[in-house]
Amino acid sequence: MPQLILIIGIGNEYRSDDAVGLVVARALQARKLSGASILEATGEGIALMEVWKSSDAVILVDAVASGAPAGTIHQLDVQTSPISPDFFALSTHAFGVAQAIELARVLGDLPPRLVVYGIEARRFVAGTGLSPEVERAAHATVERVARLAQSWLQS
Amino acid sequence: MNSKTIKVDMLARVEGEGALYVRLKGDQVADVKFKIFEPPRFFEALLRGRSFADAPDITARICGICPVAYQMSAVHAMEDAFGVQIDPQIRALRRLLYCGEWIESHTLHVFMLHAPDFLGYADVVQMAKDHPVVVKRALELKKVGNAVITLLGGRAIHPVNVRVGGFYKVPSKRELAPLAEQLKWARDAALETVRWTAGLPFPDFEQDYEFVALQHPKEYPFNEGRLVSNKGLNIAVREYDETFVEEHIPYTNALHSRLKARGAYFVGPLARYSLNFDRLSPLAQEAARAAGLGTICQNPFESIIVRSIEILYACDEALHLIDAYEMPERPAAEIPPCAATGYACTEAPRGMLYHRYQLDETGQILDAKIVPPTSQNQKIIEDDLRRFIPQVLQLPEEQLTWRCEQTIRNYDPCISCATHFLKLHITRE
Asked: Taking phi first (over 0 means left), then psi (-120 to 50 degrees means alpha), and beta for anything else, what does residue A67 get?
């Protein structure tokens, strides 16, 4: 049974649907889940590796652009599924969530439990506010994260 | 645990988009277009109507990698507008905060983003399989930068302790002491990093650039000085708008910045180093010489060594600042708002960052202008590609693409300031 579950919401609140991870984190914060600590992050990978290092159970929530319909919720159990390396070649500067997870895997630093909720976004343009389908997905994700955290605490 | 596995091709923080189009005609480069979409325009609009006091925290959100640079340019511009004098120890703490950002950001770039290019790895994950010790040391080094920012900024990711006039809370001398222990380790690790990067293979590619950076009479520049170049520029920061111009280019949303008199110019570590070598600490100068660099570096691929030297300098300088620190009597100066315009440049890790604010008598922002380093370097990046591609034109497509990416990564163009994804399109005719 994990001592404390770390929930990290990732996003930029000025980039439309990219803010969805933050929206989920704030909704979970308001619920005051016992046994869970909630953080907001920009998604810079090394900072993530640092914050999850001392946790044995981590849930990440971030926006995703995979081509699926907007509002789709992807649940990835990182222990069993690598994040596609196709992503890495695209970035000139970012060291993001996917790289952090795969680097931690290589270095043997992955938390024993790490689940990522990726919410398919529609718009990443400058601006505030979520698309309606992403907003609905955010509400659904809050429920799923809360249930998963609960089940981990009782396991 | 009940979970389903779905393959997602991109799990991403999309904070901008970039694309590079290269058109080759036989063995000639017919066209190079480096296309970016940049958020600062949006932030400039967002700032209008807000209080001057909001600017440091709002602009920090432009970049997840270098928020300190945005905060420092914002606070200096506001203090310039209101004619505020800063306590020398507040100034020292700001330099210390900047040291943290340079350590953190340069380490990220050197090891995670740029080194794999030189060693022939697709990314740092592949590199870590063969060089776990190097990568682990890099993570530790970056952590020291984070520790500096966390202590002074209140938290690691987006510092919240910075305000116009100073800080909300300043540390005691005793609170800084544990940082010094970490920085001593980091200084050794940085020295090791300079040696390591000096051993990487570099293409022969020296160019005659116009370097532009801040220059301070005594210090290696972080947050103060005149804007100088190796081709005769020497102006006060408030003369920026008269000297530099931003142009709309049909194929990109980002503005291209150029010197009115001469055109393209180069900002960032290479410019700072080449204009301010004599202001580096003796240890950093010695390490640069041992690495085989002269006092001027004109090969952009060697920027990876120069960044390492700047990490070393930042560790060294941070230790000096902590050693000399005396806790100031008050954490921030009084701010008397007045109708005015304020100007500031500071040296973000990837180059000079310009802010200008026009304010009314209550301190409300009427107009804001932010010019990030990446947009200033955009022209030079294109020029480098135009000149470098002929050297590697005979390579197979995949390697040619990789060499183009490496050329762009010399500049460490910023995701959040300018671009996140870079899509390469090479067409041959």
From this structure: left
Taking only the tens place, the pLDDT of each residue in B116-142 is: 989 988 888 899 999 999 999 999 999
Torsion angle of C-alpha atoms A128, A132, A133, A136, degrees rounded to 10:
90
User: Of A118, A114, A120, whose CA–CA distance to A77 is shortest?
Assistant: A114
Beta carbons of B13 and A87 less than 8 Å apart: no
Q: Look at residue A67 in the predicted model and tell me its pLDDT.
A: 77
CA atoms in the 13 A half-sphere facing the CB of B198: 16
B35: pLDDT strictly greater than 90: no
Residue that has been written with the tokens 């994040």 in this structure: A83
Average pLDDT, chain A: 87
Q: How far apart are CA A85 and CA A102, in angstroms?
A: 9
Distance, in Å, from the CA atom of A139 to the CA atom of B79, rounded to the nearest integer, reads: 43
Inform me whether the C-beta atom of residue A33 falls under 8 Å from chain B C-beta atoms: no
This model's pTM is above 0.80: yes
Using an 8 Å Cβ cutoff, are B113 and A95 in contact? yes
Q: Which candidate from A12, A75, A106 shows the least CB-CB separation from B128?
A: A106
Please list every residue in chain A whose beta carbon sits closer than 8 Å to the beta carbon of residue B146.
47, 50
Both tokens of B69, joined, read 């640079």
Each residue of B76-88: pLDDT tens digit? 999 999 999 999 9
Cβ(A40)–Cβ(A61) below 8 Å: no
B249-258 pLDDT, tens digit each: 766 656 678 9
